[in-house]
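Subject: complex prediction, re-run

Hi both,

The earlier run crashed halfway through, so I resubmitted it with identical inputs.
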Amino acid sequence: MRATLMHRAGDVRIENVPDSVIKHPTDALVRVTASCICGSDLWPYASMSPDGGPARMGHEFIGVVEDTGREVTTVKRGDLVVAPFAVSDGTCGFCREGLHTSCAHAQAGFWGHDVPDEGGQAEAVRVPLADGTLVKLPVAADSALVPSLLTLSDVFGTGHHAAVAGGVNARTRVAVIGDGAVGLLAVLSAKRLGAEQIILMGRHKARTDLGREFGATDVVVTRGEEGITQIRELTGGHGTHVVLECVGTMPAYEQAFGAVRPGGTISRVGVPQYEAAPIGFASLFRHNIRLAGGPAPVRAYIEELMPDILNGTVEPGKVFDTTTDLDGVPDGYRHMADRTSLKVLIKP
Amino acid sequence: MRATLMHRAGDVRIENVPDSVIKHPTDALVRVTASCICGSDLWPYASMSPDGGPARMGHEFIGVVEDTGREVTTVKRGDLVVAPFAVSDGTCGFCREGLHTSCAHAQAGFWGHDVPDEGGQAEAVRVPLADGTLVKLPVAADSALVPSLLTLSDVFGTGHHAAVAGGVNARTRVAVIGDGAVGLLAVLSAKRLGAEQIILMGRHKARTDLGREFGATDVVVTRGEEGITQIRELTGGHGTHVVLECVGTMPAYEQAFGAVRPGGTISRVGVPQYEAAPIGFASLFRHNIRLAGGPAPVRAYIEELMPDILNGTVEPGKVFDTTTDLDGVPDGYRHMADRTSLKVLIKP
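This time it finished cleanly. Structure:
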């Protein structure tokens, strides 16, 4: 079968790989019908050393179940399913608390890292712990809702997690840092949770326009001290109750603690490209700023978010501005890296 | 009048200073009847450079109102009052939200820093924003409850804040790092909020014994990796839901993120002696660890905590193991620094 492999920074290829097959009785084999490229795929695309690859890519997909191990009970051959970006058993203590990304099962973890021989940017995927991981979709594989339903695998659930972990509610003013797909869906999520003011920080007009459509009340195009000053001017001088940091770089984090209100929360969902960062008296401590967030347990949110997609209340699939087949994936990476594509949908 | 001045690290003196007097119509003048030395006073005692001093010391006191400015309405001459370690107006947006330590009033802030000419380790204090800051006590100045009521000015409220900011409740397992007065009162506070397991990390037996009396279910005397391993063994392998970090050093913070459970919270009330610290994928992000805490808005907690002291449910004043007059204050600093005193009560 054909799959996407990253050999090193800037070098993504479509190659023939051994067919994915059932290995464990809890596995399902899924024929991928829709997949995509993630903003987080751009980190290795920018920096992977040659000895880091070749790595199988892709952790967001929808597909049709082709086969199941003998212990799988919740999905069956022919079902259309969506897979979250983390594999989880759905039964351990962490899954029961809704923290599926910390599932204690030995086979749980992230595509690529913990399931190194599988990836969503491919013709098929072996899905471990299928009962815990996969969710059946009540539509056909060619439904017009597929792009929006595909965002349940990562970006919509991640934007929602940012807002939930940040404690967004109807009384909160929110700043969203980053106009990528996650940032825009953090805007949509904050709006969905009723935030009274949503300030989107981004400088790419087509994207911030979509952010306004998703619910942003203000857009700040400046960065650094100037951007922080603008946030303060828009919030009566004190900053926002919640900052959703959807980038992961140090400047984005600095922006976050500059823009947050005393007693407020910085919620991070952009994978941090740093380990140490300011959290002492001058940055977080003095004014009781809280830090929250992490990899979104998107599996926990699918049942809550899906109805809003099915009934048309939200259309998160609008973040896809490009569609390609597998052959177009290397170009898709290039276009997302140079920001000519916001997010690329793959139809293998 | 006589007051405590720190001239440099290790050099604390009792000296004559100009009498405190009313300066603003919102001030009160308080004759101090009980004060104390704080663990946080030990940071400058260990490190203050000669050009940092002389600094007036003390931010925890009980006293009798001697005079009030013409706008003060809630306390009057003869009242016994307790002062929190932060001055606040009680009326701004932050005070109304219970975050008095971020009061927006121009005269608000911390004794010593924002009110540089006054300190609690003295015969008298001018208290700015008296209506917002002071709380009347329903006992006499010689009441046996004074030591416990004095802890409302800082250490009890700070331990309580650690527990509240960490989200401690009846379902949480808690680790407390530090066997100083704040750590021990964080134990008491976690117990008061119903925590099912409270593991105190400390190695000073007299203190950890008091910790057990306050509600600690376990004591861990080891530190570093060994201490983290013990916490994990005591919690079924995953660590505690909440870690109350009551020290402020980098090793204490590292201990905290080693001991906290996925999805859990590190709540810091020890003043951080670092600015940058690990918060990336490997430390906080991977498992959605939350970071909370800061200077405790103890003013917000006095009305809630005082009844438990008055009715004898709790006796936080047990953290005082030494009592002295003003002349004994320099020795008090020495004994707290070398850990022969846990906390020193001052009767000026």
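Chain B touches chain A at residues 93-94, 97, 99, 101-102, 104, 165, 238, 262-263, 268, 271-272, 274-295, 297 (CB under 8 Å).

- K.
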